[in-house]
Amino acid sequence: MSALKNSIDNIKVGDFLVWRKSQDDKLIDKIANFFIRLFTLSSFYHTGLVYEIDKDNNEVYIIEASNPKVRIRKLSDSLPCFIIHVDIENRDLLKKYLEDQLGEKYNLLGVVTAWCGKFMKGDNRWICTKLVSYAYEKFLNINLHHYTTPDKLTIGLMKELNKPLRYLD
Fold first, then answer.
1. Packed helices 128-140 and 150-161: angle between N→C axes, nearest 10 degrees
2. Alpha helices in the chain, H assignment, sequence order
3. 125-142, pLDDT tens digit by residue?
4. How far is CA 53 from CA 11, 50, 62, 91, 166, in A?
5. What is the pLDDT of residues 27-48, one digit of tens each?
6. Domains of the chain with bracketed CATH
């Protein structure tokens, strides 16, 4: 039995997910992920949030900003990854906020500005860390905008929330 099946009862909407190894099969995605890690100087290449838990089918769905848009996919298609369990009071409102971002465009230029330590402001185009940071700012009332890369965001969340990073496969 996988760790996901063993821990599905502990996973909640809004939990933070981060990936070190790409599960994408397409060569273009592997190349893009390599350059994300290179430009962001990050050992992690991607972040996302738990969006929905389907206990009847033993499946977890994630929301992520990934080229070309914000989308939902199965966590089981994206393992292994790491997780930080996050305490959020109103998970339903968080889910609604994330729903509103579905289909919004990915921001390739935003990856470069994240490398410089800034998010592009004033637009509704996303990169993975910006989607997570803005959601947590709204629902945890913590400012994470200075954690613009997957590494910085992961370490920042562990410090801000005093929570460990756990491996999930």
1. 20
2. 3-7, 27-40, 91-101, 108-115, 128-140, 150-161
3. 888 999 999 999 999 999
4. 8, 8, 9, 12, 18
5. 766 676 676 667 666 688 889 9
6. 3-168 (3.90.1720.10)
